[in-house]
Amino acid sequence: MRSLTFLSKMTIFGFLLSTLPVIFIGAFSYATSSSEIQKNVNRGKMQLIMQINSNVEQKLTTVNHTLNQVINSTVLKKAMNQPLTVNDFVMYDDLRNEIRHMQSFDTKLEDVILINERHNWMIKNSGLYSFEQYAYFDELSSLMQMPEGTSWVLNPSSWFYSEEAAESAACSYSISLVKKLPTNGLEKYGLALANIPTCSLQELLKSDEDPYSTIMILDDQYRILLHPDQALIGKPVLESGLHMGQLTEPSGQFTQSIEQKDYSVTYYRSDLNGWTYLSATSIAGMTKESNKIGTYTLYVCLFMLTLSMLLAWIGSRHMYSPIQLLLNQIGERLTDIQKRKTNEFQAIGERVTHLFQSKTELEKEVRQHIHQVRTFFFMKAFQGNIKSSEIPEKLAQFGYDSQLKEWKMMAAITLQIDFQSNSRYSKSDLELLLFAVHNIIEELIPFEQRLAPIIMDQTIVTIIGSAEVGRDAFHNAKYALTEHLQQQIASYLNVQVSIGMSLPFDSFSSLATAYKEGLEALKQRMKLGEGIIIQYENVNAGKHYLNLNYPGHIENELIDAIKLAEKDKSKELLRAFLQAVFVVELSPQEYQIPLARLLNNLLIVMQESGVSLNQIHPLKGSLLEELLELHTSAEIDDWFWTSVVYPMINIFKDRQEAQYHNISEKIIDLVQHLYDTDLTLEECASRLHYNANYLSSVFRKETNYSFSEYLSMYRFKMAKQWLADSELPIKDIAAKLCYNNPQNFIRSFRKQEGITPGQYRYKKRSG
What we know:
The structure is a single chain. By secondary structure, the protein is α+β, with helices and mostly antiparallel strands. Among the domains are: 60-198, Beta-Lactamase, CATH 3.30.450; 202-291, Beta-Lactamase (2-Layer Sandwich), CATH 3.30.450. It is 54% helix and 13% strand. The protein is built from 27 helices and 16 strands. The strands form 3 sheets. It has a 6-stranded antiparallel sheet with strand order 3-2-1-6-5-4. A 5-stranded antiparallel sheet has the order 8-7-11-10-9. A 5-stranded mixed sheet has the order 13-14-12-15-16, with helices on both faces. Helix 1 packs across helix 7 (293-329) and helix 17 (567-582) runs antiparallel to helix 21 (633-674).
């Protein structure tokens, strides 16, 4: 059986291509119009609930701020440590004054309640009470069991009114801001509650005049906080007809049937307190206008069907004519092609492949040899085995004419791979990883900005250049380039690299010197750690040579150890520095030069770090004069340590501990609020404006856990809490914890706890 010609195939394909879309265009047009109407309405609903969210959170934030001022006031701190009776009128009056500042029309606050469980007193609008004798003592005491931190809780309004004013509650429920007291103590024995009646916030939901829509606000337990129907406030969202199983993302839209009618539900979950702002709109009300499109679409589709089939026939014949002409030129007949059971393009391809096969193989061999020769040349140049006069000529032969003419400033970049203990790679993978990094460098750095990267002694080296002559601009550009390169390598290969940069130079004859400077810069990993980008100008004070008479490298290590508050290492390096100075036979006056230089550099570090001289030397005398009065190496060693180095270490240690604790607290707060998102250390670094590697080391030092370990532990904690206290299906729990597959969650849980999630839930329920 002969195969069809391309003309027949194109004609059939054209018919299908024109017919099938037209057949479905009617349904598609109707669906699209309905969808667009729904999208526009949903977009408006999302903007509306975002505006409502903004208005509500503005009031909540104001209440939180003012309540923080009250609980951190001197009056409250003093009152928390003593009992209050009717005789303590002054103290009570001071506390009431603090509370009155919070209650304003803007905040909508009804009452602010202070409770001291240890000293058995409670203060609210109506006066001072004995807490144990209060009618709702048990209910208010239960709030002490809430987790640490700030919490917004829906409570019955009757809890906050005394027996004398039990009918004063205008609303059945109040939204309470609950804070445990004292804020800085380990033991919490008091509460501060700021109550906002739900009906005072109800007017914020009246901005939507759509008769087909209902707007409500849910708390983090999916209870209704605000709703047009006051009878539903405080009840689970299921009683309104909505199912919370689809509220898994921070925001979104979905369709759900409520009372046998389809509704489009738009929701947004607040990052402030986990509340969900939700709008349910009738789809029938949104799309009833789109039905008018149906009839018009039918007539349009019939016309398009006829026109498309005609164009398919004409177009196929026109497109086939060049193929027919090409077959005639290469001497192929259509009947012969059909007998060989091939098609026209296969016949043309075979002839072209035969003609150019020899040329392609030759070009491939030439390119391969040129690449090898170029690599060998750069290796010799970096090792200093090429004459300076020959380097420009060779570069021109390898196609670097534009670089020779345009580059005014250059620098060498050296890159080495850092193997970590938890890496999935081993030392045997080094060659493969170097090859992959080599290819990434070629892809990320444009040819006009670099020379070919070369692998030498487990190091990748390349030269980057710029036509600009500004040193600062070139410095910023190369640092941005290397940082981007480091990030992309980590992203693609999941491997950490360190990069060293030489000082800028303006002549290709300095390739060997630049390569050595890049290697010297990489050696700083021994004291700065892995995954760094270090410039040689930070190693040798911006000079192209090393001063071998002064132990500058030891001094740099000493300064770094001081900044890192490493006491033992600093003492060891100070001793090594002095030994290097005194090992040379010099006169007493000549010894004073390196010692004075060390003292001067340490004082510069102090000044640059904002450390006052009075902090380490409260006496008004001169440190240099004290140094010059010393006569033995032991005295000099002891003086440097006690008078300069150790005081500096204490200052940097205090700074470091405060900063590390603050950073760790911020990371923990992000984890506790964003654990159910795809949270990464890089995202935390972006939010907190720190380097990701720095955050990782600080967090591990403060908590003894890596970021990923802590995030996993917290997610498992939440998983166990949901398994024990809720009816959430396991697949929903897996989705909330960002597992793509519930089976992955089950395997991880079993590895962590030794049992499956289902077994854990049964064990907790039965126990």
